[in-house]
UniProtKB/TrEMBL annotation:
GO terms for cellular component: plasma membrane. This is histidine kinase. GO terms for biological process: cellular response to phosphate starvation. Residues 45-260 form the Histidine kinase domain. Its main location: membrane.
Length: 260
């Protein structure tokens, strides 16, 4: 982004040329950047506007169902289904709003020192109350902090852990590890679940991309979890690595640059 022309966006690429010279390519990407901004604003605004009517609908449904004893029995099931779908829509809007927020917030908002080990301990106790039957194995092998945003990192780790639970059997273990390896700090979530066919990996972090639509809807997924993880990673200069084998399991790793 040019300081003198704040509305203009340029992309630079530098490549070696001849002996010691460099070639610099400059591309004007203003049009693409504006379109992308319009798309983000649109999604953010629509999600925000849809929340109010949905809150009213859910409120009435909750009140009606709280007095279900007075209902004709044939209305009970459809009303329960309406309530479930309204709940689903609420989760979807929450994820959409969160995604549009992390796509737009600048990096200076991410300047806290985050203690990842205690973040993961907090996540473990949250999981124990929401999924008491699940076994989470926590391996905290370092106590390094990273520069970042606690809420964003919590949502990325939480999405990975919940996915690991969704796509594996209830009695299988999910391992969460935090360790230093060379110049990197690695946060990995490993499951022994259904795994992912390699053909799906390149598109897995796209919004609403799902390997198996019916399974994901059944498990209550919004299709936005990995898109959120990818954006949180990008905002923290981290890489998202996916290692998976169908029928064996998956490991999702966030690799952060270690502080010098
Ligand atoms: P969803 O809400 O559908 O889980 P995500 O964006 O979190 O959406 O994940 C996208 C897709 O990637 C999922 O629909 C699922 O097919 C696949 N996936 C994600 N995590 C795992 C995992 N741990 N094991 C197997 N498949 C996974």
């Amino acid at each position: 982004r040019l300081k003198s022309e704040p509305e203009q966006f340029l992309q630079f690429a530098v490549t070696p040329f001849g002996s010691g010279d460099r070639l610099v390519f400059v591309r004007d990407v203003t049009k693409e950047a504006r379109l992308e901004q319009m798309r983000r604003d649109f999604v953010g605004n629509v999600s925000h506007e849809l929340r109010t009517p949905l809150t009213v609908i859910k409120g009435y449904l909750d009140t009606i169902l709280a007095n279900s004893g007075q209902l004709e029995p044939r209305f009970l099931r459809p009303l329960q289904q309406m309530e479930q779908q309204a709940q689903r829509m609420e989760t979807l809007l929450k994820d959409l709003l969160w995604l549009s927020r992390i796509e737009t917030v600048r990096s200076k908002a991410r300047a806290e020192q985050v203690d990842v080990a205690s973040l993961l301990q907090e996540l473990e106790s949250e999981l124990q109350s929401s999924h008491p039957q699940r076994r989470l194995e926590l391996q905290l092998e370092c106590n390094e902090r990273i520069n970042g945003d606690y809420r964003e990192l919590h949502s990325a780790a939480s999405n990975l852990v919940l996915n690991a639970c969704k796509y594996s059997k209830d009695d299988s273990i999910v391992t969460v590890r935090w360790r230093r390896q060379g110049q990197e700090l690695l946060l990995s979530v490993e499951d022994r679940g259904i795994g992912i066919d390699p053909v799906h990996l390149p598109r897995l972090t796209e919004r609403f991309y799902r390997v198996d639509d019916s399974r994901s809807s059944r498990t209550g997924g919004t299709g936005l979890g990995l898109a959120i993880v990818k954006h949180v990673a990008a905002g923290h200069n981290a890489q998202l690595r996916i290692d998976s084998k169908p029928g064996v399991g998956s490991t999702f790793t966030l690799a952060f640059p270690a502080p010098a």
